[in-house]
Amino acid sequence: MPDFEMTIQVAQDRTATAIEIAPLGQSPQRLMLALDELDKLIGELGNARSAMVQGQSPPDFESDDVTICTVANTKCWGGWPPYGIAVPE
């Protein structure tokens, strides 16, 4: 997959998010999303990721090769855990 640049900005009035994606050296494509559209995109990306990892073994979270990133200050509604996510016991 080619390298790309991506920027994400929230409008000052917080009514929309702008996502710009461009292959390196090319003009970006801009996508403006309202909150409900952003929620739908996040859900669809989660479904795509779940499909990509389906059948794979979860990583060994004790390994030095695994990087764990956390997300702070989120407000999430819905089911937990999402389908396909590896949750350590």
Task: List the topology elements.
Blueprint: E1 4-10, E2 17-23, E3 29-33, H1 35-53
Notes on the protein architecture:
By secondary structure, the chain is an alpha+beta fold. 21% of the residues lie in helices and 21% in strands. It is built from one helix and three strands. The protein is extended, with a radius of gyration of 16 Å. It starts with a strand and ends in a 36-residue tail after the last helix. The model has no long low-confidence stretch (mean pLDDT 83).
- Principal-axes shape call: extended
Helix content: 10-25%
**In terms of structural class, how would the helical and strand content be classed?**
alpha+beta
Poorly predicted ranges: none
Distance between the termini: 33 Å
What proportion of the residues form beta strands (DSSP E)? Answer: 15-25%
Task: Sketch the topology as an H/E string, one letter per element.
Answer: EEEH
Indicate the mean pLDDT: 83
Instruction: Report the C-alpha radius of gyration, rounded.
Output: 16 Å
* Order of strands, widest sheet: 1-2-3
Number of strands: 3
Give the biggest sheet.
3 strands, antiparallel
DSSP helix count?
1
